[in-house]
Amino acid sequence: MADKYNINNLELDDNSFYLLPDGDYHFTVDSHEVGFATSDKLPQNTQQITCYLEIPYITEDGELDTVVVRNSLNVYKKALFAIRQFVECIGMVPEKGKVKIDLDRMDGLTGVCSITSRESSRGNEFNNVQAFYPPSKTPAVTANDEAWKKSQAKQEASVMLDVPFLND
After folding, report:
1. Which residue has the higher pLDDT, 74 or 132?
2. Domain annotation covers residue 167
3. What are the pLDDT digits (tens) for 19-63?
4. Helix, strand, or coil here: 117?
């Protein structure tokens, strides 16, 4: 599913990482992986859904670019609020009922999240998803409104180009 993020397939350049300023951002679920958490802080055999969120932004040169933020959702009782927050954000939860994650449908869905920078135990800063907003509570203005509009227009244009023409 997320083979392009497999360590054996990575092609890195000097500018492969971009630290977003803290703020609210539109995102698209680019891909996901399901596995098991490896942290000693979690119960043994905790299932984990790792989502790769593609966030468009405008570079200093005014060009449209994207950064991919990795977000892991640990499937255990104390973390269910985070999973519910995520699936509500991307529109997968009915108003009443249990949280249902349709993994086959998740890639390509969109939402808005709060991003903050965070420092790892090794001293490196990284983009951290602080919260996901349900559609009813999405902020009116996000840090990447201009980039989001450009990326959606670009995506619509590419879809138009991919439509096969039928010859009678």
Report:
1. 132
2. no
3. 999 999 999 999 999 988 888 888 888 888 999 999 999 988 888
4. strand
Q: Is residue 12 part of a domain?
A: no
Domain that holds residue 143: 18-161
Q: How far is CA 63 from CA 27, 66, 107, 123, 166, in A?
A: 18, 10, 25, 30, 35
Identify whether 98 is part of a domain.
Answer: yes
Backbone φ and ψ of 158, nearest 5°: -70, -35
The answer on pLDDT for 159 being more than 50 is yes
Of 24, 4, 29, 33, residue with least CA distance to 115? 24
CA–CA separation, 28 and 69 (whole Å): 10
Let me know if 95 is exposed, middle or buried by CB neighbors in 10 A (0-12, 13-18, 19+): exposed
pLDDT at residue 79, rounded to an integer: 82
Confidence class of residue 10 from pLDDT cuts 50, 70 and 90?
Answer: very low
Q: Of 69, 3, 56, nearest to 26 (Cα)? A: 56
Count, residues in the chain: 168
Q: Report how many domains make up the chain.
A: 1
- 129's CB contacts (< 8 A; 6+ apart) are 53, 69, 71, 113, 114, 115
Task: Please indicate, yes or no, if residue 6 is contained in any of the structural domains.
Answer: no
Q: Is 166 helix (H, G, I), strand (E, B) or coil?
A: coil
